[in-house]
């Protein structure tokens, strides 16, 4: 069932905030035959056509499903629409790229994975950060053991706005951190707990403090909020050998590796207690320079044409959705620790 076509025609559904970034990157890709933009809101279509006058547009999703010209569909609509749109596209024989978070529930994610496998179609989830140079670099450093054993990770993703009306800050922002952490640690957490509040819009939490423990023993803390005086995109990774800070708001030195740590020396005699502190060089590794979304759409095409498994496939989307569900459950139960099976 995999397409062996040289060029691929893509329908992009949802031309709100994020969809236009996908359209730009598809149009910039040499493997892209054409893009057809779809949105229920005519004003969004007018705006995107203003930018790309030759772009075909439609308000009807069915037009993409019925068209033999369309090989693949990219979905950038609110999460509560992802399941129906993805299911219909797979049933119509289209390969699907669906934005994060993959689905609104674990059951939906499992059903879509099974459907894609049955139809022999590519299903990829838009975990953009997994394609970004600093995140890829840190993943390599962790895999190579450059930081030693990973003790813990602490992450802040906060800013003022944009308050969403359809999902909480957990589904909106923590989905990024979860995808990054699970990719770095090559695992999902065993247990998770969260505290959060809905200060601005009743029923839609705008701040959450999330704690996790991974099979390796590594623990992680993720803070997400739409209520903060300034933008923070900061993650600290603490290893037994070295420590690292990833600051995505930095322009030049997004990653800094600190040769710092504490060594515990076994006492020779009772009562002797020795710790030795290390403070060496601070190194900022050279990072590749490319737009993550460009690499992501190129990977999607490569998977379609060559029958490859996407790096961020349905299962990678599923483990993020499972963790988001567990986080939400914990938050609704005053921080009760939820186990993830
Ligand atoms: N990968 C990333 O870094 C990243 C960044 C931002 C948003 N996103 C994701 O992208 C998705 C969209 O987010 P957004 O901020 O662009 O939302 P948005 O609300 O700005 O835009 C969504 C658009 O989808 C349209 N739409 C809704 N239902 C539709 C349907 N059935 N058919 C056609 N059009 C429909 C709406 O009219 C709207 O224009 C979300 O899943 C979000 O999490 C990903």
What does this structure look like?
The chain is of the alpha/beta class and about 350 residues long. It has nine helices and 15 strands. The strands form two sheets. Strands 14-13-12-11-7-10-9-8-15 form a nine-stranded mixed β-sheet. β1, α1 and β2 form a beta-alpha-beta unit. α5 packs antiparallel against α9. The protein starts with 7 loop residues before the first strand and ends with a strand. Bound molecules: nicotinamide-adenine-dinucleotide.
Number of helices: 9
Mean pLDDT: 96
Secondary-structure element pattern, one letter each: EHEHEHEHEHEHEHEEEEEEEHHE
Instruction: Write down the CATH class of the largest domain.
Output: Alpha Beta
The order of strands across the largest sheet is 14-13-12-11-7-10-9-8-15
Assembly form of the protein: single chain
| Distance between the ends | 33 Å
Report on the biggest sheet. Answer: 9 strands, mixed
Q: If you compute it from the alpha carbons, what radius of gyration comes out, rounded to the nearest whole angstrom?
A: 22 Å
Number of domains: 2
Helix content: 25-40%
CATH topology value of the largest domain: Dihydrodipicolinate Reductase, domain 2
Bound molecules: nicotinamide-adenine-dinucleotide
Number of DSSP strand runs: 15
Name the poorly predicted regions: none
Corresponding CATH superfamily of the largest domain = Dihydrodipicolinate Reductase, domain 2
The portion of residues forming beta strands comes to 25-35%
CATH architecture annotation of the largest domain: 2-Layer Sandwich
């Amino acid at each position: 069932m995999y397409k062996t076509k040289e060029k691929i025609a893509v329908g992009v559904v949802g031309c709100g905030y994020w969809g236009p970034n996908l359209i730009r990157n598809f149009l910039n890709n040499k493997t892209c035959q054409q893009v057809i933009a779809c949105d229920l809101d005519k004003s969004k279509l007018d705006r995107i056509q203003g930018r790309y006058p030759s772009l075909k547009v439609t308000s009807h999703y069915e037009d993409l499903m019925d068209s033999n010209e369309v090989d693949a569909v990219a979905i950038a609509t609110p999460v509560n629409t992802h399941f129906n749109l993805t299911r219909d596209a797979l049933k119509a024989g289209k390969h699907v790229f669906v934005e994060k978070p993959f689905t609104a529930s674990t059951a939906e994610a499992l059903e879509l994975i099974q459907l894609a496998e049955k139809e022999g179609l590519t299903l990829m989830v838009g975990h953009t950060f997994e394609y970004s140079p600093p995140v890829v670099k840190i993943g390599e450093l962790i895999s190579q053991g450059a930081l030693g054993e990973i003790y813990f990770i602490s992450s802040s993703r906060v800013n003022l706005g944009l308050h969403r009306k359809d999902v909480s800050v957990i589904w909106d922002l923590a989905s990024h951190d979860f995808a990054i952490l699970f990719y770095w640690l090559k695992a999902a957490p065993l247990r998770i707990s969260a505290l959060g509040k809905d200060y601005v819009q009743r029923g839609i939490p705008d701040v959450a403090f999330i704690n996790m423990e991974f099979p390796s023993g590594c623990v992680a803390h993720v803070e997400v909020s739409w209520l903060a005086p300034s933008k923070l995109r900061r993650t600290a990774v603490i290893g037994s050998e070295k420590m690292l800070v990833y600051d995505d708001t930095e322009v030049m030195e997004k990653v800094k590796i600190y040769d710092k740590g504490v060594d515990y020396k076994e006492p020779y005699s009772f009562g002797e207690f020795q710790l030795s502190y290390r403070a060496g060089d601070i190194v900022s590794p050279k990072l590749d320079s490319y737009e993550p979304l460009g690499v992501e759409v190129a990977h999607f095409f490569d998977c379609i044409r060559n029958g490859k498994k996407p790096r961020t496939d349905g299962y990678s989307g599923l483990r993020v959705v499972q963790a988001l569900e567990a986080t939400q459950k914990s938050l609704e139960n005053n921080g009760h620790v939820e186990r993830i099976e």
